[in-house]
Amino acid sequence: MIKYLNIEAKRLMSDSLISVIPDTIVTEVDEIFKSNSFHHIPVINEDKVCVGIISKMDYCQLQHHFTRIDGERDKENNRFFASLLASDIMTPNPVTVTDDILLSDLIKIFKNQNIRSVIVTRKNECVGIITPMDLIAYLEEVLINYQKAIA
Question: Would you tell me how many other CB atoms lie within 10 Å of the CB of residue 123?
Fold first, then answer.
């Protein structure tokens, strides 16, 4: 069973990232979340270094606190969100790991830091993201293969 904990992050990560730059307008972040099913958007600089992360939960909480339901205030809300940048709402300095970190170490990071995503890097560039859902998908794959092996 230990061999299943020795898998590297590059085999677990989601590498088809949609990211934004710090100067991205928040209305664009909104469109990204509406058009996709993922829950984290890395914020990267010109060197492809991840400088922050925007979680869907944090974004929805921001919307909840500033959204008004009547028509006239709705225009105010749209102007307000159009005036914000990704750098205004991101969580700076997200947890990063290299793409060769092992699953056993990833589990410790998620557990000890109580986080919902880690950015995967190679030569300091953002190349992927891992969430607990990626770990669950891997566990499902391991269990299916185990069932096939004992059948």
Answer: 8
Look up the pTM and report it: 0.87
**Quick one: pLDDT at residue 115?**
93
Taking alpha carbons only, the member of 62, 48, 49, 27 closest to residue 94 is 49
What's 2-150's CATH class? alpha beta
Among the residues of the chain, which ranges form H helices? Answer: 9-12, 26-35, 56-66, 71-83, 86-89, 103-113, 132-150
Of 62, 65, 69, whose CA–CA distance to 27 is shortest?
62
Tell me the two tokens of residue 138. 């891997």
Question: Using CA atoms, how far apart are residues 1 and 42, in angstroms rounded to an integer?
Answer: 33
Q: Where are the domains of the chain?
A: 2-150
Count of other CB atoms within 10 angstroms of residue 101? 19
Separation of alpha carbons 75 and 79, rounded Å: 6
49-59: per-residue pLDDT in tens? 999 999 999 88
Q: What is the largest CA-CA distance in the chain?
A: 64
Which candidate, 54, 50, 61, places its Cα nearest to that of 90? 54
Q: Provide the pairing of β-strand 50-55 with 91-92.
A: antiparallel
